[in-house]
Input
Amino acid sequence: MIPEHYLKEKQAFIFELDNVIYPEKDYLLQVYYLFSQFMEYGEQLNAADVLHYMQQVFTAEGAEAVFDKTAAKFNIDEKYRVNFEMLLHSVRLPLKLLMFNEVLNSLQSIVLERKQLFLLVSGNPAMQLNKIKQTDWNGLEKYLTVYFTEELDPALNALEFIADKHALKKEDMLMVGKTDFAKEAASNVKVSYLQVDDLFVN
Output
């Protein structure tokens, strides 16, 4: 839960998306499931084996390595990269993405206090928008203003841009994130920063 003193002191709360609002693996593992099914249908590969291997690579080496390693392991033709990328960017998920419960509670508290709520989203805007649309926001989506770092130049000045656009004082803002980028962006313009993991501490 977001500390009470921040709720009282701050007027605007800016959150990252991946692994802050929800666990990114919940999105990626559904993509891998659908791709493995596609490979079973298209190339008669065993979907369970493909999925298991994709999960192993993701856990050990991260999302960037998944297609290349899986293609090498199962002799998947390079032509299927476009299908994999298409799924990553525009998949219709079988299951909605669920927010971390502590983050949901924090967002609800912020809205109840009538404070402003922003998402500052890094990564491919099309894929990130797809994630946002398929997140179960519990009715909070109408209170969110979303900015994509790839559309701001330089990205590290994103919080300055938000402050100027919404007539906010930097001392009234709090950035909640997990990445080095979020921490640096906050430090860059002297905005308070809270590591999202702190919301999970009792």
Observations:
- Residues 4-22+99-200 form a domain with the Rossmann fold fold (CATH 3.40.50.1000).
